[in-house]
């Protein structure tokens, strides 16, 4: 019997997650095994194993959310930059067969020779505090965006 999809279980609230953002089509959450402070995932709620099974508009919408979350995370953790990662298939090191995009904040001295930092088990308290900061930035940016459109 196949194991249930981890992300589908989180989306259905059958498993816990530290959420940054959620709308009717996407969820953003803290990565349980972060590469850096603020490492997050953006996941479409509709199950797709590969980016190639999504239609181009869905991919564009996904990356619009990635843009918004990336901006909020880099601001919340004062990152010097960020990396985006998205793997498709076991050969590409996709561990969970449900499309997801990694947002990894980067800091000037976070690794030697520009290589990826090492994954660790996330500290729940630290991830919760970071998520609160990100949600705060998202809330502030949404109210700013709304007020700009009303002018």
In short:
With 151 residues, the protein is α+β, with helices and mostly antiparallel strands. The chain has helices at 6-11, 56-76, 124-150; strands at 19-22, 26-30, 40-44, 81-85, 101-106.
SSE layout and pairing:
Blueprint: H1 6-11, E1 19-22, E2 26-30, E3 40-44, H2 56-76, E4 81-85, E5 101-106, H3 124-150
Antiparallel strand pairs: 1-2, 2-3, 3-5, 4-5
Beta-strand percentage range: 15-25%
Overall pLDDT score: 89
CATH topology: HIT family, subunit A
Domain tally: 1
Q: What is the helix/strand order?
A: HEEEHEEH
What keywords describe this structure?
disordered C terminus, single chain, alpha+beta, globular, 36% helix, 151 residues, 3 helices, HIT family, subunit A, five-stranded antiparallel beta sheet
Structure description:
The radius of gyration is 16 Å and the shape is globular. The protein has three helices and five strands; from the N terminus they run αβββαββα. The protein has one domain: HIT family, subunit A. The protein has helices at 6-11, 56-76, 124-150; strands at residues 19-22, 26-30, 40-44, 81-85, 101-106. Strand 1 and strand 2 form a beta hairpin. Helix 2 (56-76) packs across helix 3. A five-stranded antiparallel β-sheet has the order 1-2-3-5-4. The model is unreliable at 143-151 (pLDDT under 50). The protein starts with 5 loop residues before the first helix and ends with a helix.
